[in-house]
Amino acid sequence: MMSTRRFAAVLLLCACVHMTQADIEYDDYEAGEKVPEGGTEVDPRGHRPVSRGGGGYTAPRQGPPPVSGRGSYRVRPTAAPLVPKGEQEKDVQPDAGGCTHASVQMGLLCPTGCELKTALLKQESNVRREVQKLKREVDELSRSSNTVVTYVVDMSNNLRERQQVRNENGNTVTEYTGELEEQHAYVKEVVDSGFPSNIRLLQSVLEKMRQKIQKVEKAILAQRDECKEPCSVSCPIPVVSGKECEDIFRRGGRDSQMYLIKPDSFLPAYKTFCDQTTQNGGWLLIHNRMDGSVDFGRRWDDYRRGFGNVAFSVGKSQCQTPGEYWLGNDRISQLTKMGPTEVLLEMQDWSGGKVFAQYRQFTVQGEASNYQLAVSGYSGTAGNTFLDGANELFGENRTMTIHNGMMFSTYDRDNDNWIPGDPTKQCSREDGGGWWYNRCHSANPNGRYYWGGAYTRNMAKHGTDDGMVWMNWKGSWYSLKTMSMKIRPFFEE
Ligand SMILES: *[C@@H]1O[C@H](CO)[C@@H](O)[C@H](O)[C@H]1NC(C)=O
């Protein structure tokens, strides 16, 4: 009986000490399921290796090749139509935007803070839960320590009784009492020294968390205020417009900015950002990441329609372009099927390094084919992840990370090649965004945005490399600072 209670007391103490240690890092509430320690972070992770008895890997059948051949564009005329730089007429279009509306037209202007607000609100509830839990545990602990204190008091009384008995009965119980005294001393010491300080520590952790939550609440309130009114920002839209950015360039639109384009005469025009300087311009920005302000962990419908901010407010009705966005799979498909199209992927790390990957042919099939991807003709400095997969992997493992020929997957629509039909094997659920996942990736431009670059398994929600990864440049455990994808009708220069 004695020794069981003593054991329980020691156990309680251990639990208490352990809890304090674990909760020093209470900021880490996003980590979700913890992955066992020990994995070195240099390990490539993009693939899902075949395990004994697990479903095997069969390379998927290839889809149609990318649209190739001569497009409708000839070499650019040497003397482009003259529009004096800086004197392009600008038509100011008032542009209403809002935080609660998805930017269907891709032109809604909204402070990126609105997205931030949503993210914060999401995290807030997590923290709240954690604090509640912690509070319950602290209460529990206080209660049990009270029980232990009562127990010690009982024991002290018991000891006194025993001492009396000893006086009466001489040596018969000396041995037993000696043991009792020893235990009493031990437990009393534990209770006097260990418990209060541990509980104090826990309480201070709790207090710090409460303060943090208050700060977050203040920040959210400020954001809410800012987002209450639909943001009314005017972004000048140049008068010059066209089918896409190359068309606009040839019509004299030489500034890199937001333009109105109308690639299909049967579909409404929409706004997009044109890069008219890189490699002689004509690039239509279909994807942009630069500050983590937009959530890319989205549904199929969002990826189909497009989301994010082509332009965003920087206060005082000032407008800045481009923001973070995904143009939308329907639009990307429609644009790349009009004729041969090239794609340029540019990226930057957190110390100023820049690389690019370019494919001379890039086609995305329509929704009926789940936006199947086809590329060819690589050049660049970033590494050919789309066609070759991750250089760090070998054999089947590398084949699993090739993106060419893959269909698009989102967390609510699984078209990847990781045991199709098994709902527990979905790349998009684990790797953070919608993408042309295979089993799973060597490039993950729509992954989670990690500030600062290096991240670890334990920081990732599912222990997978869910960052904005380009394995053939920085490996699995480095999330890039910026990434973008631009397309242009292909023409021989
Ligand atoms: C594939 O990856 C797994 C684990 O990552 C490894 O054990 C296996 O040897 C790899 N296979 C090849 C062919 O490299």
TrEMBL record:
<dbReference type="GO" id="GO:0005577">
    <property type="term" value="C:fibrinogen complex"/>
</dbReference>
<comment type="subunit">
    <text>Heterohexamer; disulfide linked. Contains 2 sets of 3 non-identical chains (alpha, beta and gamma). The 2 heterotrimers are in head to head conformation with the N-termini in a small central domain.</text>
</comment>
<dbReference type="GO" id="GO:0042730">
    <property type="term" value="P:fibrinolysis"/>
</dbReference>
<dbReference type="InterPro" id="IPR014716">
    <property type="entry name" value="Fibrinogen_a/b/g_C_1"/>
</dbReference>
<dbReference type="InterPro" id="IPR020837">
    <property type="entry name" value="Fibrinogen_CS"/>
</dbReference>
<dbReference type="GO" id="GO:0070527">
    <property type="term" value="P:platelet aggregation"/>
</dbReference>
<feature type="compositionally biased region" description="Basic and acidic residues">
    <location>
        <begin position="33"/>
        <end position="46"/>
    </location>
</feature>
<dbReference type="Pfam" id="PF00147">
    <property type="entry name" value="Fibrinogen_C"/>
</dbReference>
<keyword id="KW-0356">Hemostasis</keyword>
<feature type="signal peptide">
    <location>
        <begin position="1"/>
        <end position="22"/>
    </location>
</feature>
<dbReference type="InterPro" id="IPR037579">
    <property type="entry name" value="FIB_ANG-like"/>
</dbReference>
<feature type="coiled-coil region">
    <location>
        <begin position="117"/>
        <end position="144"/>
    </location>
</feature>
<feature type="coiled-coil region">
    <location>
        <begin position="199"/>
        <end position="226"/>
    </location>
</feature>
<keyword id="KW-1015">Disulfide bond</keyword>
<dbReference type="GO" id="GO:0072377">
    <property type="term" value="P:blood coagulation, common pathway"/>
</dbReference>
<keyword id="KW-0325">Glycoprotein</keyword>
<dbReference type="InterPro" id="IPR012290">
    <property type="entry name" value="Fibrinogen_a/b/g_coil_dom"/>
</dbReference>
<dbReference type="GO" id="GO:0034116">
    <property type="term" value="P:positive regulation of heterotypic cell-cell adhesion"/>
</dbReference>
<dbReference type="GO" id="GO:0005201">
    <property type="term" value="F:extracellular matrix structural constituent"/>
</dbReference>
<dbReference type="GO" id="GO:0005102">
    <property type="term" value="F:signaling receptor binding"/>
</dbReference>
<dbReference type="InterPro" id="IPR036056">
    <property type="entry name" value="Fibrinogen-like_C"/>
</dbReference>
<dbReference type="Pfam" id="PF08702">
    <property type="entry name" value="Fib_alpha"/>
</dbReference>
<keyword id="KW-0964">Secreted</keyword>
<dbReference type="GO" id="GO:0051258">
    <property type="term" value="P:protein polymerization"/>
</dbReference>
<keyword id="KW-0175">Coiled coil</keyword>
<feature type="domain" description="Fibrinogen C-terminal">
    <location>
        <begin position="236"/>
        <end position="491"/>
    </location>
</feature>
<protein>
    <submittedName>
        <fullName>Fibrinogen beta chain</fullName>
    </submittedName>
</protein>
<dbReference type="GO" id="GO:0030674">
    <property type="term" value="F:protein-macromolecule adaptor activity"/>
</dbReference>
<dbReference type="InterPro" id="IPR002181">
    <property type="entry name" value="Fibrinogen_a/b/g_C_dom"/>
</dbReference>
<feature type="region of interest" description="Disordered">
    <location>
        <begin position="33"/>
        <end position="75"/>
    </location>
</feature>
<keyword id="KW-0094">Blood coagulation</keyword>
<keyword id="KW-0732">Signal</keyword>
